[in-house]
């Protein structure tokens, strides 16, 4: 080993620390100037009092900045003393369908769909086209977004790696739009239909309203009993709200009548307020409330805000789906008087039907397993129902 001379140098960090420590111990010595000025009666002023110039503050509104949110208290312009129970898109009812029936004064006459819905319709080659639509909607789209975190109820603290792919909303939009486009191409309907997208959902409208499906008396059919719970359980209480009826289509337009409402269910957004898993019964209740809201807004636009018993029922079909499981239902709106013990609204529904079992890449290849053609049969039946 070669010996070298010792370098005579200081540790630069220790040197600066020592320097700051020494300087911090210094005391300010008096120069005697202040005493001499006081002896000669010369006034002394602090420099900050002379240099400081008081200017009034002025609020300048800059274009592009987000305004301050309005406080959610009694000063809010939409404050009301009467409490309103709110149900939004990201919440479900605790008792599901039974609670929704009580809220909307609706009864279920029989299980399944009415006999007027023909489910035996078939078109040559449609199943092959539907399989292609499923693959293109769930696998072949070019969107690559960060997907929500994967959660396992059995391992709530386990942190799964984040994945990228097609979002749930885009899968739903592509699937429903392509299925409706396929049906419109293969079917020649007797009436014209038009499509509207409302807050992420899809509304199919027609030139003529759907026919009445149940004309018998509903007085003897009782509403479900969820005692000791109240029908407003799990609904959020609000003082800040604004009551208004908003049907988005002007009735002067020829194709203004609601035909089929498509509702998107995203399990990452729709949750219980107590963070429990959403059950199938709660999804059925969500379908009923969505259908009732759309049908009621149309009825009030048609007959006025104060309408109670409708002179002619409003019939609306509903398809509730998360992109794989489809729930088909029909609502006949007879009355908006929700305390009416005689006349009630009518509800038909099916169980949730899977369009497929799985659609994913297996060893690098796109694979669709467990395709169910009953879903497209139900969609065809709903589309051709007039």
UniProtKB/TrEMBL annotation:
<dbReference type="Pfam" id="PF07147">
    <property type="entry name" value="PDCD9"/>
</dbReference>
<keyword id="KW-0496">Mitochondrion</keyword>
<keyword id="KW-0689">Ribosomal protein</keyword>
<dbReference type="GO" id="GO:0006412">
    <property type="term" value="P:translation"/>
</dbReference>
<comment type="similarity">
    <text>Belongs to the mitochondrion-specific ribosomal protein mL37 family.</text>
</comment>
<dbReference type="GO" id="GO:1990904">
    <property type="term" value="C:ribonucleoprotein complex"/>
</dbReference>
<dbReference type="GO" id="GO:0005840">
    <property type="term" value="C:ribosome"/>
</dbReference>
<dbReference type="GO" id="GO:0003735">
    <property type="term" value="F:structural constituent of ribosome"/>
</dbReference>
<keyword id="KW-0687">Ribonucleoprotein</keyword>
<dbReference type="InterPro" id="IPR052482">
    <property type="entry name" value="mtLSU_mL37"/>
</dbReference>
<dbReference type="InterPro" id="IPR010793">
    <property type="entry name" value="Ribosomal_mL37/mL65"/>
</dbReference>
<keyword id="KW-0809">Transit peptide</keyword>
<protein>
    <recommendedName>
        <fullName>Large ribosomal subunit protein mL37</fullName>
    </recommendedName>
</protein>
<dbReference type="GO" id="GO:0005739">
    <property type="term" value="C:mitochondrion"/>
</dbReference>
């Amino acid at each position: 080993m070669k010996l070298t001379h010792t370098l005579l140098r200081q540790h630069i960090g220790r040197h600066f620390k020592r320097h700051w420590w020494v300087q911090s111990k210094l005391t300010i010595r008096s120069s005697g100037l202040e005493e001499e000025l006081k002896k000669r009666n010369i006034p002394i002023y602090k420099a900050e009092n002379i240099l400081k110039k008081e200017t009034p503050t002025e609020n300048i509104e800059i274009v592009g900045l987000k305004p301050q949110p309005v406080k959610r208290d009694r000063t809010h312009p939409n404050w009301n003393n009467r409490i309103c129970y709110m149900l939004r898109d990201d919440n479900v009812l605790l008792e599901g369908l039974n609670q929704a029936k009580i809220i909307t004064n609706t009864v279920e006459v029989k299980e399944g769909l009415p006999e007027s819905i023909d489910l035996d319709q078939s078109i040559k080659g449609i199943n092959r086209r539907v399989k292609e639509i499923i693959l293109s909607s769930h696998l072949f789209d070019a969107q690559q977004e960060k997907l929500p975190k994967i959660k396992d109820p059995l391992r709530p603290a386990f942190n799964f790696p984040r994945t990228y792919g097609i979002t749930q909303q885009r899968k739903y939009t592509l699937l429903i739009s392509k299925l409706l486009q396929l049906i419109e191409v293969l079917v020649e309907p007797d009436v014209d239909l038009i499509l509207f997208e409302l807050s992420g959902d899809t509304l199919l409208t027609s030139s003529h309203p759907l026919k009445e499906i149940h004309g018998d008396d509903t007085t003897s059919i009782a509403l479900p009993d969820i005692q000791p719970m109240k029908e407003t359980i799990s609904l959020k209480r609000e003082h800040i709200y604004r009551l208004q009826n908003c049907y988005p289509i002007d009735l002067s337009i020829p194709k203004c009548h609601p035909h089929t409402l498509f509702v998107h269910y995203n399990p990452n957004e729709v949750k219980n307020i107590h963070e429990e898993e959403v059950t199938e019964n709660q999804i059925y209740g969500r379908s009923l409330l969505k259908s009732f809201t759309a049908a009621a807004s149309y009825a009030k636009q048609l007959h006025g805000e104060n309408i109670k018993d409708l002179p002619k029922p409003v019939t609306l079909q509903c398809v509730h789906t998360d992109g794989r499981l489809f729930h088909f239902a029909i609502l006949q709106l007879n009355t908006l008087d929700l305390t009416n013990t005689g006349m009630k609204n009518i509800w038909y529904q099916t169980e949730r039907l899977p369009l497929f079992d799985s659609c994913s890449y297996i060893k690098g290849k796109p694979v669709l397993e467990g395709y169910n053609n009953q879903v497209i049969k139900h969609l065809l039946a709903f589309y051709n129902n007039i």
